[in-house]
Amino acid sequence: MIRLLLSSALQILWVLVVVAQPEVTWVQRYAVESPIFSFGKNLNIIDMATDEAGDIYLLGFHRSDLELDGTVVHPPYSGAQTGFLQKLSGGGEVLWYRRLTMGDMRTLAVKSGKVYVGGEIASAEYGPLLIQRDASGATRTLFADGYRDAFIARFDTEGTLEWAKAYGGADSEFFDKGDRLNALAVDDAGSIYITGSYHREMDFGGPTVFTEPSDRGKTFYLARLTPDGDLEWAEQIQSPLPIDGGNAEGLGLALSLEGEPIVSIAYSAGGLLLDGSILMNDNQDGDDGCLLVKYDTQGNRQWYRNIEPQEGLIVPFGLETDEQGRIYLGFSHEQQVLIEESATLQYFQAEDDLLKTALLCWDANGQLLWGNTLFCSNGAMDVHPDGNIYLSAAAFRAEVALSESTALSFEVGGSVSLWARFLPDGQLSWAHQPELLGDPPFSTNHNIMVDAEGRAYASANFNQPLAFGNGWSLTTGYDSPDFDALYLIQIDDSNISSVFRPVHRPLRAFPNPTAGTLHVELPGHGQLQLLSSLGQRVWGVAHAGGLQSFTLPALPAGLYLLQGQTGQQRYLSRIVIE
To answer: How confident is the model at residue 12 (pLDDT cuts 50, 70, 90)?
Structure first.
């Protein structure tokens, strides 16, 4: 249920209400027959994609026999962890399934009738990777040179393997070391871009071999491959720290309108080596930063944008572009961040020192357009070509504000899913959440995808009964909440034809937080009033127009709503009093 921020008493005063809701058109439950773990360790959907026909592709893994709505649809390979690629119709019917046994699945792309799977051969943990070639069950085996190597497998849309290749080299003898492939993208000509990190050595099967004799943990790479998976070029960025903890890793990858690669890089506190100098993560107590970099199609770096945390870390989880060339980045963070040493994110709630989700947007030239922070976690995002942003995440809080004046309300004690769509300018379009049919659930491993027609698909692990709306509900299928199933839902928001816009305007008021002095700007003569978290009027004054300063009365520290009005136009801002 959606309600307005602060308390129900404010609903009378706030004139913004979300009326339209998306429709959940179908729901499916994935589970395993004999669970031995929980919270995404029995099964998970890692990535999703669609093709031009509207069919759905799922990349994930399962342990034990995979069940769909209570019926076993696929057994594992010898009872071990089984990576899988599954194709569904737009209505959710299983069309085919292919095993990728005992590897780590990372990324999926569908382009021009080809299906690309990327991930890692974890030889120290699982052994070689066995890839099912076709419906006959025949397999192709890939071996790793080191303890962990990257791989790509390409199928046609009928599920026939066309080729599979490994990329990597010798590693140190630790499970957490190795050569990783985290994201891939394919351009219109079929060229493949991959990004991730390597340890000690990275051989792409061509003249370029990266070597790093130090004990550095992760070194970033970006490579362009031919449509057959052969190397065209590769670039790297290193940390200046030659020790474990000197990390730089490509986590996100998208292509510009011209087919140029854009990558998001997570890097450690030691910074990065760029053009012979050190780019430091020097923003107070930040641990890990994020670098957004755009290259041309020949591997030349065009520009970069640095994002540093005030405290804690930044972990990019999504990178997308739209048909206007805009660039969208999603990342997790703990406290406020600096973007290129100056810009900060807009918060919709007061700081609580917990993990949050940020959405940022740049134009094609790297000019920041907006950046918002949402107080949810475990986020996933996808962007429609028109620039509409789809978000799936876990609440972890009693309330999550998604705009200046709209929030979702949750029961305390669990991790509940939420889904939302934002417009290209960051404004909220709609938000939705499941109804709890039992105790608050633990939902994790969120994923979301939107197809060309605007249909969205969302998935996550859950361990309590949920109602998704429009008559759809799921139980986990287990007798105990100790094990989690996985939901897959289709969301249709075509019924939401009007653009969601606040009927109020933001009120410029600073400093915020304030210790008692407040500067407030209104375009003309009007009134101001300050409301407590219970909706009580605690202060009011006439405003002469323009920028005017006020001294607030002594009030308890906390979150307040400042409301301004000139004629029929309202202005709102949340104010934190210290």
So the answer is: very low
Is the distance from CB of 62 to CB of 55 less than 8 angstroms?
no
Residue 315, amino acid: V
Residue type at position 136: S
230 Cβ neighbours under 8 A, 6+ residues apart: 205, 206
- CA gap 52, 368 in Å, rounded: 32
d(CA 513, CA 511): 6
167-210 pLDDT, tens digit per residue, is 999 886 665 689 999 999 999 999 999 999 999 999 999 888 99
Domain with CATH 2.60.40.3080 in the chain: 507-577
* pLDDT tier for residue 503 given thresholds of 50, 70 and 90: low
Domain 507-577 class, CATH top level: mainly beta
User: Cα dihedral sign for 99, 446, 312, 337?
Assistant: positive
C-alpha closest to that of 336 among 328, 327, 325, 347: 347
Cα-Cα-Cα-Cα dihedral of 118, 56, 449, 444, to 10°? -70
Distance CA 530, CA 542 (A): 12
pLDDT in the model for residue 19: 42
Q: Torsion over CA of 78, 79, 82 and 87, rounded to 10 degrees?
A: 90
Beta bridge partners of 389: 383, 422
183: left (phi over 0), alpha (psi -120 to 50) or beta: beta
How would you list the strands of the sheet with 2-3, edge to edge?
2-3, 407-409, 399-401
Query: pLDDT at residue 502 above 60?
Result: no
CA–CA dist 177, 197 (Å, integer):
10
DSSP annotation string for 294-355: EE-TTS-EEEEEEEEESEE-EEEEEEEE-TT--EEEEEEESS-EEETTTB-PEESS---SS-
pTM, two decimals, is 0.85
Confirm if 491 and 458 have CB atoms less than 8 A apart: yes
3-class DSSP state of 205: coil
Query: Which pLDDT belongs to residue 534?
Result: 57
| DSSP collapsed to 3 states, 182-194 | EEEEECCCCCEEE
| DSSP per-residue letters across 458-473 | EEEEESS-EEEETTEE
Amino acid identity of residue 377, one-letter, is: S
pLDDT of 2 reads 27
Residue position matching structure tokens 């929980």: 38
User: Contact at 8 Å (CB) between 540 and 528?
Assistant: yes
Q: Is the peptide bond before 207 cis (omega within 30 degrees of 0)?
A: no
CB 288 within 8 A of CB 281: yes
Among 517, 503, 534, 522, CA closest to 564? 522
Query: What confidence tens digit (pLDDT) does each residue in 27-45 have?
Result: 999 999 999 999 899 999 9
For residue 292, pLDDT beyond 90? yes
d(CA 120, CA 106): 8
Nearest Cα to Cα of residue 89 among 56, 132, 64, 43: 56
Strand pairing class (94-101; 104-111): unpaired
The radius of gyration computed from the CA coordinates of the chain, to the nearest angstrom, equals 25
